[in-house]
Amino acid sequence: MTKHIFVTGGVVSSLGKGLTSASLGMLLEQHGLRVRMQKLDPYINVDPGTMSPYQHGEVYVLDDGSETDLDLGHYERFTSGPLTRDSNYTTGQIYLSVIEKERQGRFLGKTVQVIPHITNEIKSVIRKLGGDDVDVVITEIGGTVGDIESLPFLEAIRQFAQDVGRQQCLFIHLTLVPYLKAADELKTKPTQHSVGQLREIGIQPDVLVCRCERGISRDDREKIALFCNVPIDAVIEERDKDFSIYEVPLSLVDNQLDELVIKRLGLVAKPLELHAWLDLLHRLRNPQHEISIAVVGKYAEHRDAYKSIYEAIDHAGISQQAQIRIGRIQSGDVEREGAERLLGGYDGILVPGGFGERGVEGKVDAIQFARTRSIPFLGICLGMQCAVIEFGRNQVGLSKAHSTEFDKNTPDPVICLLDEQRNVTRVGGTMRLGNQPGVLTADSRAAAAYGSDSINERHRHRYEFNNDYRQRFEEHGLRFAGTSPDGALVEIVELPAHPWFVAVQYHPEFKSKPLLPHPLLRDFVGAAVRRRHHRDQTAVRPEK
Ligand code: GLN
Q: CA torsion sign, 9 to 48 to 506 to 289?
């Protein structure tokens, strides 16, 4: 029978519930258990696909094309269980489904209410993830205990434990134990209050994971245990990690969270196998090279907007033994201050995906700079479209080349709407989404990176390369290195004459894992390391 772990958060938001849940999932997998991860989000949007990156950070896309919360990226980077549409539900989706049933008359005229109809719907989406082939489901409840919005979810998980049996479930509460400088003390009161609130709703947490800047003394742990009604071995310290997020699982192991969970749920597990993970951290701590990569995007100042891209660059750095300083450059600043000034010192330039016109000219300038100065370049989605615009304008001689997303009347629409998008009027979930197959041109950079002639990559776009221009671009030196299997959609463009210039219509960052970096990012970073090396060798040194 599948066991269920519920992770809630208290005191403040941004405590890293997603990372803690993902780390626990990883540890249980490394104990030989079959784990599924799930996130329930209390907001009313039906999915994060139409939310601003400023509000919500990046939209994380799964193989099946669902547009999900960025915490699912953590899940995929740490664990290997499949994630699908069922791995992320919002309040909006839950209500939509209940209201659709009501419209179909499925409630036989009864009054439709939060309890039991909404809570039943929530319980059914949790139950969906269990099964004969699953040992543990970890369900993370978004938001903070005490929020009005998360109440139906908390009520549903309380009921769920009643339905399946309390011993089949484990409630983990992530809380904050702040350090108060004036008193020179750690404070346990916020934790006591937040657990108090959970208990009012009827949930007695089994384990408290306490985020803290400083170590929690035995006395403080005893106090938390006493006031919160948990055994002292269930008060787990999770100290801030300033080196790397990939240290979080180790800190949980040091505090024996994995053993505790296995014991409490009565799971039959193998001994923990952490060799590969320890090796990863060793490589992370002992880099052989130092390089810098500029990420030039519309939302570059916002940490979460390109979360998976930054992570994927880090994974590539680990595999190339390179410590990478990432410069987050706003494309609008490139327009104002010039590419030379902002990008001159970087060893590689990456232009990520995006929507909307603001900052597009800055991206085009950054790409021209990378192309003409032979700086390794990777373009992703809108980054590829901008690379095509730049090449069209400056190499093919189409001075007004543009995408019809930004200029409907351009004389040279080198990027235009996909046929399937022409009649779409709804905004949510209507792009070309999720895994799509592609084939690669032999002897291309992409084929060399993948070591294969076919790919399957995740997409999220409405516009594409306009095939009317293929021949002219080819004649001027652009290589079409990857297309859909029928040849109709361009997936990858490259410049064979450049040290490493590759741009792709899809999102490689969603498939990169710390132990398995994405081949394109790996080779991009490899090219940046070579460039750095060459520059260091040829640098003019002052005479002694
Ligand atoms: N806005 C572009 C499109 O819709 C690119 C999308 C993206 O970068 N994800 O095609």
A: negative
Active site annotation includes 381: yes
For 421-449, write each residue's pLDDT tens digit: 777 877 777 889 999 999 999 999 999 99
Interval 306-346: pLDDT, tens? 999 999 999 999 999 999 999 999 999 999 999 999 999 99
Locate the ligand 1 atom nearest the alpha carbon of residue 418 and give its number.
10
Alpha-carbon span 53 to 59, nearest angstrom: 8
Distance spanning both ends of the chain, measured CA to CA: 74
Measured in degrees and rounded to the nearest 5, phi and psi for residue 28 equal -65, -40
Active site residue: 381, 386, 405, 464, which one? 381
Cα 72 from Cα 21, distance rounded (Å): 10
Best mutation site among 460, 490, 504, 505 for ligand 1 pocket (most ligand atoms within 8 Å of CB): 460
Q: Are 59 and 172 in contact (CB under 8 A)?
A: no
**Contact criterion met (CB below 8 Å) for 202 and 219:** no
Residue 386 appears among annotated catalytic residues: no
How wide is the angle at C-alpha 81 spanned by C-alphas 78 and 87, nearest 5°?
95
The DSSP secondary-structure symbol of 516 reads B
Does ligand 1 have an atom closer than 6 angstroms to the CB of 507?
no
In whole angstroms, how far apart are CA 10 and each of 6, 90, 187?
Answer: 13, 19, 14
**Active-site residue, from 58, 311, 390, 509:** 509
Reduced 3-state DSSP string for 327-363: EEEEHHHHHHHCHHHHHCCCCEEEECCCCCCCCHHHH
Q: Per the structure block, which two tokens stand in for 94?
A: 């839950």
Task: Give the atom of ligand 1 at the shortest distance from the alpha carbon of 380.
Answer: 8
Look at residues 18, 116, 26 and name the one whose alpha carbon lies nearest to residue 60.
18
Decide: 410 and 404 in contact? Cβ < 8 Å. Answer: yes
Confidence of residue 543 (pLDDT cuts 50, 70, 90): low
One-letter amino acid at 67 equals E
Is any atom of ligand 1 closer than 6 Å to the C-beta of 381?
yes
Q: Which tokens belong to 464? A: 């594409």
Q: Which distant-in-sequence residues (6+ apart) come within 8 Å of 168 by Cβ?
A: 1, 2, 3, 4, 161, 265
- Ligand 1 pocket test: pick from 298, 358, 382, 422 the residue with the most ligand atoms within 8 Å of its Cβ: 382
pTM of the predicted protein model: 0.92
Task: Measure the CA–CA gap between 5 and 21, rounded to whole angstroms.
Answer: 9
Q: Which residue has the higher pLDDT, 243 or 148?
A: 148
420 has catalytic annotation: no
Please tell me if the CB atom of residue 460 comes closer than 6 angstroms to any atom of ligand 1: yes
Residue 291 CA to residue 345 CA, distance in Å, equals: 10
Distance, in Å, from the CA atom of 314 to the CA atom of 291, rounded to the nearest integer, reads 11
Q: What is the CA radius of gyration of the chain?
A: 25
How far is CA 112 from each of CA 109, 156, 181, 354, rounded to the nearest angstrom?
8, 16, 51, 40
